[in-house]
Amino acid sequence: MTPSDVMRQSLFKVAAAECGIGFWKGRHFGDEINDLETLAADPFVSEHTPYDLAVAAGSSTTLYHAHLAPMIVRPSTRAAAKAAGSASRSVNSSLAATQSRTYATVQEGAPPKRTYGGLKDQDRIFTNLYGHHGADLKSAKKYGDWHRTKDILAKGHDWLINEIKASGLRGRGGAGFPSGLKFSFMNFKGWEQDKKPRYLVVNADEGEPGTCKDREIMRKDPHKLVEGCLVVGRAMNATAAYIYIRGEFYHEATVLQRAIQEAYKDGLIGKNACGSGYDFDVYLHRGMGAYVCGEETSLIESLEGKAGKPRLKPPFPAAVGLFGCPSTVTNVETVAVCPTIVRRGGKWFAGFGRERNQGTKLFCISGNVNNPCTVEEEMSIPLRELIEKHCGGVKGGWDNLQAIIPGGSSTPILPKRICDDQLMDFDALKDSQSGLGTAAVIVMDKSADVVRMIARLSSFYKHESCGQCTPCREGSTWTMQIMQRFEKGQARAREIDMLQELTKQVEGHTICALGEAFAWPIQGLIRHFRPELEKRVAEYKATHGHEALGGGWEYDAGKKGLLVAPGQ
């Protein structure tokens, strides 16, 4: 095997071996790809590869998982030529490097050592996160918002998308899909001939327990969101933006509506926005507090006045979205950072964090810390530094830490031994079998009851399930009941494996990601805190002389006048 063959294999090994369904710029490979040459020689890939993005590795289960697929980076032409001409590198060592490579390791050899974190104030995008100045238009302009926005719009959609791609921005709502690529989906070939309206839909339905970053943006920096709607809308040639805000956010909706009205009055949005000749409207729509409406197609259904239940995909919203028109649904933070990115340059934003995990990020830290807060920091900051620098540390000190949920309630829990050296970014947390999610860090010290914590989350997801999918409707009910029994010790040790199998049966078999949302926290609990579950069962047995009956019923339930089984 020649060095060039090794390079080709290193480029396409993961995509070819792993993807049952690859997703690339709207193109689906439905068959499993085992021939490396087929993928390497695909003219669509070579023709449509922007920057260094090559092929996405999709899910091997169902088609709708394709949008969660991480991207694989293709080395530049210069790097490929250098690698191919390097006679000193042996084939065996190259193959070893290829086999050890993961999604988080996109280059050969050890990356240069660097410490992440310590973001300077001049590099923070959200300058009013703590309400040091007003949320009105005058204050926003004073701190840099709406500065030469007309010139930005005049550069056109291609330039805007290229800058966002160069920044390495990934979706801040949880999935982490490359934003520049997502914004380009609506600019398909021949879009100019399509007379339908085109919509940007901003997901402000922040219902994930522990998450409060978008709420702070809308309450303190609303003009960053409004300007972001205009800039992102121009990038995808949208005619209007709909901001879908959670119904409980009454104060935030009031502040945001006032900011929209100020922007209209000043000529910044609406007809001839900012004097650019581009017409763009912004509408605010209040939801009714359903957690499932945070899913993009469920949100679209709710905007249309229907019950908030997810749609089957395809068709994807970029083709058939709001009111049957091309639409792109994206997160508040993702939209709000875009004006600053294109104003300062994509390379500036890409200078923070690690490869594939660039930029700054809002982290919401709550739980057993001395100073719960929402803070903007550099991606890939160590978890311990994040907590000790901005929150005053864990109550009782770092050694008193028991566990952390790193990215909102739907991400698996991590014990202290993993948290000691954990970096806060998409790939590092994925390697730890968890996820960055919404970056809502929930801290639990040794006084916290982790089993009760996960049991409460199970109750939440059961309550919020829309009931459309049988695995989710029934699975969330059963997981809630089993977790409530484990909380009291009224379960059997063999039910731990049964609970694990139940979550695996739900995972990947639902229309939206809510199935994974209630399955993953339980999987994390069993993975890291199985002894705690076994301990509760043993304590119950020691107290009562036996384990509980199936369903949690006691042996002497009949003597106590209690029902011994449902329906009796």
UniProtKB/TrEMBL annotation:
Role: Core subunit of the mitochondrial membrane respiratory chain NADH dehydrogenase (Complex I) that is believed to belong to the minimal assembly required for catalysis. Complex I functions in the transfer of electrons from NADH to the respiratory chain. The immediate electron acceptor for the enzyme is believed to be ubiquinone. Core subunit of the mitochondrial membrane respiratory chain NADH dehydrogenase (Complex I) which catalyzes electron transfer from NADH through the respiratory chain, using ubiquinone as an electron acceptor. Essential for the catalytic activity and assembly of complex I.
Cofactor(s), names only, from the UniProt record: FMN; [4Fe-4S] cluster
PANTHER family: NADH DEHYDROGENASE [UBIQUINONE] FLAVOPROTEIN 1, MITOCHONDRIAL, NADH-UBIQUINONE OXIDOREDUCTASE FLAVOPROTEIN 1 NDUFV1
A GO-annotated cellular component: mitochondrial inner membrane
Topology relative to the membrane: Peripheral membrane protein
Classification via InterPro entries: ComplexI_51kDa_subunit (IPR050837), NADH-UbQ_OxRdtase_51kDa_CS (IPR001949), NADH-UbQ_OxRdtase_suF (IPR011537), Nuo51_FMN-bd (IPR011538), Nuo51_FMN-bd_sf (IPR037225), Nuop51_4Fe4S-bd (IPR019575), Nuop51_4Fe4S-bd_sf (IPR037207), SLBB_dom (IPR054765)
Family membership noted in the UniProt record: Belongs to the complex I 51 kDa subunit family.
Subcellular location(s) per record: Mitochondrion inner membrane
Keyword set, alphabetical order: 4Fe-4S, Electron transport, Flavoprotein, FMN, Iron, Iron-sulfur, Membrane, Metal-binding, Mitochondrion, Mitochondrion inner membrane, NAD, Respiratory chain, Transit peptide, Translocase, Transport, Ubiquinone
SUPFAM superfamilies linked to this entry: Nqo1 FMN-binding domain-like (SSF142019), Nqo1 middle domain-like (SSF142984), Nqo1C-terminal domain-like (SSF140490)
Pfam families assigned: Complex1_51K, NADH_4Fe-4S, SLBB_2
UniProt-listed Enzyme Commission number(s): 7.1.1.2
Domain NADH-ubiquinone oxidoreductase 51kDa subunit iron-sulphur binding as annotated: residue spans: 451-496
GO MF term list: 4 iron, 4 sulfur cluster binding; FMN binding; metal ion binding; NAD binding; NADH dehydrogenase (ubiquinone) activity
Protein name in UniProt: NADH dehydrogenase [ubiquinone] flavoprotein 1, mitochondrial
Subunit-level organization: Complex I is composed of about 40 different subunits. This is a component of the flavoprotein-sulfur (FP) fragment of the enzyme.
Source organism: Cyphellophora attinorum
Family annotation (SMART domains): NADH_4Fe-4S (SM00928)
